[in-house]
Amino acid sequence: MALKLWASSAANALKLSCRASATAAPFPASSISRCFSSVIDGFKYSNSHEWVKHEGNVATIGITDHAQGHLGEVVFVELPASGTSVTKGSGFGAVESVKATSDVNSPVSGEVIEVNSKLTEKPGLINTSTYEDGWMIKVKPSDPSELKSLMDSKEYSKFCEEEDAH
């Protein structure tokens, strides 16, 4: 119980969300990693587990903490070149882990204006700094209204809980 209180306090202090079911047993072994998947208030999330941080006319995109947790240690990242066009729902790159290779889809359409070249040398940044140093691309959205169809942090947390329950 003390661990649960500490984790909840730490998550609140860091503005992380961990929404566990009220009916679930406290910290069953299979849900510990899920409970500590984080989401960031103010970001948007796709159902294919990409996040978007929208600031002005730039959308920064990466894979979610939930996704990297399921993938395991990321060992290689394939990214597009700057100037490439991306389309909402279509793949723009791939993430290879010790477990699997997964396509990464763009949550918005637009032009890639910057690529995180640090990931070439340090793909593990996706694991260790998912929402900061582990970003993948920056896009100038061609239709910012596409952001409205994405989930907010509460909706995404619920989505992940339901997905993991199946």
List keywords for this structure.
166 residues, alpha+beta, six-stranded antiparallel sheet, three-stranded antiparallel sheet, 6 helices, 27% helix, disordered N terminus
How would you describe this structure to a colleague?
27% of the residues lie in helices and 27% in strands. It has a 6-stranded antiparallel β-sheet with strand order 1-2-3-9-8-5. The protein has a 3-stranded antiparallel β-sheet with strand order 4-6-7. A hairpin with a 2-residue loop joins strand 2 (50-55) and strand 3. The protein has 6 helices and 9 strands.
Oligomer: single chain
- Uncertain runs with pLDDT below 50, 5 residues or more? 1-35
The gross shape turns out to be: globular
| Biggest beta-sheet profile | 6 strands, antiparallel
N- to C-terminal distance: 27 Å
Spatial strand order of the main sheet: 1-2-3-9-8-5
